[in-house]
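General statements about sequence and structure are easier to judge against a single worked case. When preparing material for the folding task, we compiled for one chain both its residues and its backbone structure tokens. The amino acid sequence and the backbone structure tokens for this protein are reproduced below:
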Amino acid sequence: MNLVQYINDYFRATFETKPSVISGSGGCLFISGEYGIGKTHLAQIAWNRISAHSDDTVHRLLLDVPRENFLTMYREYLIDQIDHNDLFERVEDYYRYIVAAEFTGPDNRGSADPIAEGLKRRELDPQPVVQKLGLVESTLRADLHRKLRLVTEARKFSVALSLILDPDYSDAVWEWLQGHPPSTLLRERGVTEAIDSDRAALDALGVLAFVYGRIGHRMAFVVDDLHVIMSDLEERRVPFLQAFERLVNVFIDVGGLLVVCGTPEVEEALSRSTRDRMQVIRPNRFTAKHTEKYIEDSMPENPSLFAPGAAAYITELADGLPRRILQLIDQAVEIAARNRSRVSDATVRAAVRAEYEQVPLDEVRRMVWRTLEAEGRPFSADQPAGEGGGAIIDAWMPIGTQAAVAVIVVGALLISEQIPAIDLKVSAARSAVPDCEVILVVNGYVAASLRTDVSFITGRQPLVFESRGFPGEFREATRAVIGKVENALQEDVLAVVKRQVDRIGLQQAYGQTLIEQLAGMFDTQRAESDRRLNAIQGELAELSRSAAGSRPGQADGAPVRAARPPGLPDDVRMLFDTALDAVEQVSDVGGLFRAEFDAVTAEPPASGGGDMPLSRLLTAPEMFRSFGVAMLLRRLIETFRDSVGEWFGSIRATGAGGRAAPTVEADLPRLLAICRTYDETVDVLPLFRLNNLIKLMSRSREPEGPAYPRSVRITEALDNLGGRVYDGARRAIGI
């Protein structure tokens, strides 16, 4: 199944039919694969295709910053992507359809009724219609309540959304949908529970998708890395899966589109009936030809940079995983640029070590020792073993007199020539006692082709050191291995009890030492924090003095642009200026405040008209987050621009006429690394939040016309900025 074709077909079908009530025309696409296979890349492609097809009836949600708690992500990211005014209108539209059904009948054969048509076209307000024609509003509200109950058993959602139609309750309902506790108003009407669990958050999204779908709108939801969300659910796993499967069914039934990325384990955890309703895509691993093609397309200016066989070697070490391949290519290109050499097999191995050996080998050993100390495990560090003590065991844990557990720490395993040294250490450890188990800790990376050999020697898979989760993984592995040895020994009960008591004593001693160390660290940190605070206060005072007067020629309140670095070619400078101008267009809060104050002296609007007060808009948490994203984006672009300017300065540093073309070409990988750093960084920013600012800024500016709105301007200015800067720089130096 082709992802792009699937999405194109979905929109083609729904746009062609556009029924008032869509049933069963939705879709769910599950992108299944292990870490690094390219799921996130496909999710981004899906999002771009959805965005290209979207109109006012498509409501997009993107979850690309997964955390372990779905409720937190709902509150902080997802609900902010819903336009609450639009949601209120859609609920009202749904109510219009319910009222219109009183005039058309259940079979819809009386659709020509003028009142029904006026309601559906939003020409008539349903409230006066209900009152003037003597309809029983409580019955109609009960119908709305009953239909919403089809989505979730939770009464709170149907009651709350019914109350949206009442202006006295609408703000309280929106606050509740954002995850806050229900207000007194809502409690009096029976909404007594907050959206305070993963299940409730999933149900909330299902209800919103249902409302949109029942009036011919569509919700498109892209979820990246579902496995990350599910990683720590434990006892909440079953309720989460049930709620997620219910969400899948709602999206399909009401014409929505759900795109989900997850591991094969998550796919298997879903029920058979849910998997049958989903379309599954399983990305393929890269072959050597894929890697060669990528290198050829991304570096056409230097086709001989990679030595023969280097691309195949990268593919082999990366086990064909696209993310690893791209990471190794970037590292290898950077190392080759520093060494002014080609990318050889040795360069690739150096790239693996640079990418995955995040800490020195000695630090890995210290982490092993600290974890064992915290566990209260008696051990010897750097224990000699074997004939003549020639082999050094990093941690030796004796268990009684006849058994032990040996921990061996090695660097990244990349070539088969490293295996004999491991075999030698394991043999030396096992020769010391009759029963010896081995835990092999590898710093950062094990080539897939070596895993079988290593596990055959040690008796188990190696434990790969990654700084974040290593202590817990090592602790669990140690407990499992020691438990296996103790069960095999069948020791006397007193010996086992004595070992446990000794272990508790060691844990207490370690804990006391750690507390004393932490107390000293806190004192040091407090002194350092006081020093930094004084420095920051001094800098702020200096900034205040510098900003006391406006710059010559600068309007009051206008955005202050950082000084442009000298030496940028005009075409490249224009790319940065356009991007920064586009960001300022949607984040010039000074202009917004000026317009608000200017409006004080203008003729007041007619009663009941006008926009929502600015003060009310700015109290919304999503606005603060949106301005934060705009600030980060502006600083990122400025830093990117300065780095490119420094690159141009470095290639012009020698001689008035610049360096020879071949020398400049050798510096291109450094420029490419700068551009890719920008691309990778901007990809993690939640740029969808800028949509809030685009709507907000329209209050203070003249309409720009439908042909070129601000949303298009900022999209065009930021789209592939890193690639366009790289191409512009190459043209500027004549390459």
